[in-house]
Amino acid sequence: MTKKTKYRNAVLIVFSLIFYAWGEPVYVILMMFSIVFNYFAGIQIGDYKFTATLEKTAAANELFQMLEDAPLVLELDDYSGFEKVGPLGKSLTRSDKQTTTQKGDIVLYNGSNIVMFYGSNSWSYTRLGKIDDLTNWEEALGSGSVTVTLRLL
Predict the structure, then answer these.
(1) What element of type H or E holds 76?
(2) 90 and 128 in contact (C-beta within 8 Å)?
(3) Inter-residue contact 83 to 121 (CB < 8 Å)
(4) Lowest-pLDDT range of 10-14, 29-33, 91-95, 96-100
(5) Which positions ≥6 away from 49 have C-beta within 8 Å?
(6) Spatial CB neighbours of 115, under 8 Å, sequence gap ≥ 6
(7) pTM surpassing 0.70?
(8) Phi and psi at residue 28, to the nearest 5°
(9) Which long-range contacts (CB under 8 A, 24 or more apart) does 74-79 make?
(10) Nearest C-alpha neighbor of 70 from the set 4, 5, 152
(11) Please, is 131 exposed, middle or buried when counting C-beta atoms within 10 Å of its C-beta (0-12, 13-18, 19+)?
C-alpha cells in the first residue's frame, strides 16, 4: 500500500467517523471497535478463497504489516496428517503458549514458520489467526504440498 493510499484511507476513516458521530454517536464507538480489533486477511489456496480473522498478538500485527506491502505467497508442506507448515521468510515476535489447536487455526511455530491446521494438535505456538468459514478447508489443503497466498481484504 502506498503512502498516498494510506493517507486517503486515514482521511476516509476520519470523515466517516465524523459523519456517523453527527447522526448517531453510538455507532462511532462500534466503528472504532471494529477498526481497532478486526483485522481480516484473505487466504487463497488454488481456486479456493477464505477469510481469516487475525489475533491480537504482536506476531499477527507484524504479519498484518507485511501484508500491507504486498501479498505473501507461501509453500506449505503436509506434516503428520493434521497441518500444513512452511517458512514465512521472516521471524516474527514469539509469544508461545501451550495450545490445543483446532481445524482452521493459523499459528506461528519457532518464530518463522506458519502452520495452518486441518486437524488438531497440542504444542507451544504463537496464535496468528483463525479461518472464519471452514467450508471446503480440508479439500483446499488436500494432500501433499500447497501454494497459499495471504493478502489483506
Answers:
(1) strand 72-79
(2) no
(3) yes
(4) 29-33
(5) 42, 43
(6) 79, 83, 84, 85, 101, 106, 107, 108, 109, 125
(7) yes
(8) -65, -40
(9) 74/114, 74/147, 74/148, 74/149, 74/150, 75/145, 75/146, 75/147, 75/148, 76/114, 76/116, 76/145, 76/146, 76/147, 76/148, 77/144, 77/145, 78/143, 78/144, 78/145, 79/115
(10) 152
(11) buried
Question: What DSSP line would sit under 99-136, residue for residue?
Answer: EE--TTEEEEETTTEEEEESS--EEEEEEEEEES--TT
Residue 91, all three cell numbers: 521471524
**Could you tell me the three cell numbers for 147?**
501454494
What does the pLDDT read at residue 39? 54
Classify strands 122-131 and 48-54 as parallel, antiparallel or unpaired: antiparallel
